[in-house]
Known about the structure:
Layout: E1 9-11, H1 20-36, E2 39-43, H2 49-63, H3 67-71, E3 83-85, E4 102-107, H4 115-118, H5 136-164, H6 173-176, E5 180-188, E6 203-206, E7 212-217, E8 223-227, E9 232-235, E10 243-247, H7 249-254, E11 264-266, E12 274-283, E13 288-289, E14 307-308, H8 309-333
Helix pairs in contact: 1-5, 2-5
The protein binds N-oxalylglycine (OGA) and nickel (II) ion.
Family: Belongs to the iron/ascorbate-dependent oxidoreductase family.
Keywords: Dioxygenase, Iron, Metal-binding, Oxidoreductase
Organism: Penicillium frequentans
Amino acid sequence: MSTPSAPPILDFSPIYGEDGEAKTRLVEEVRKCCHYNGFFQITGHHVPLELQRRVMNCSKRFFDLPLEEKLKIDKNLNSFNRGYELLRSQMLEVGTGPELKEGLYIGEEIPEDHPYFLQKKLNSGPNQWPQAVPDTEEFQKTTMEYYRAVFELAKDVLAVLALTLGVESSYFDPLTAGAVATMRFLHYPAQPKDEDEILNRGIGAHTDFGCVTLLLQDEVDGLQVLDAPTGEWLDVKPVPGAYVVNLGNLFMRMANDKYKSNTHRVINKSGKERYSIPFFFSGNPDYLCECLPNCRESGEDAKYPAITVQDMVTASYKESYGRAEKYKKEMETKKMDELPAVAAVGA
Ligand code: OGA
Ligand code: NI
């Protein structure tokens, strides 16, 4: 992989089959991707296409709601990161404007008497469901059915990652038991063609915080991965039914930087609205992330001290949201009462 190459599309089905050689080849492909930039796409997994279609339909139904309805479940109304996130709330890339995306944060249903809620664990609390969405019952059912299906897939991906490290496929069981994951319905409005590309990002260049991300894209492109050696941005083509899998900062840290958490961004230049559903797998909040087996050359030290999933992910969130807040305050003090214009969507 010396010339810049977009993330390969890997058939994941050998993981579920009996063909040992095919499985070994897949594990080898995944290992190469982890060393190169930590990105690959997978087909042949167990999440049904039909369920993916239903959940995308839920996402669109949600974003079609009037703003006042969406704001009733504003995620700023709770401390556990569930609910609606307005356009321009987050800012991941220094030197760009707040981002042209809106989102709905969903996770495991954690009632208020659950130990995770009581102990204020990462993103843990009841989901904030929109009341005005057509067929609310189906909306919640499909969303959670999809969440659980992708959670299972994340466990399968971690089992393969364990194999790439030369350890048992069950190695990450203590990380996946009681794991916290966040799913986001995302909507990127169409950016007008002549808008300033430097300032306007669907998502600015960033790396993901957690262990591993599984992303479902619709048919509209816009996701790009940085080829670090050349500085080139590579398009991650939407493939129907496939997941874009990428490692996050936490995994890179555990792998002593041998595996990569790579920079990526979204610029929606298509002229169309874009929808995607990333699933961020953080892990059990109390899991202690230490240097993984076989990630050190002989005599090499672990680069990082051990840290819990909880501490690592909380610190990353604070940083990125702090940046957006600071930017907005600066804009206010400059008496610029309006941020750069955005395409009116569904208005
Ligand atoms: C993210 C992300 C890509 C996309 O949410 O971290 O990189 O296509 N999303 O929405
Ligand atoms: Ni990302």
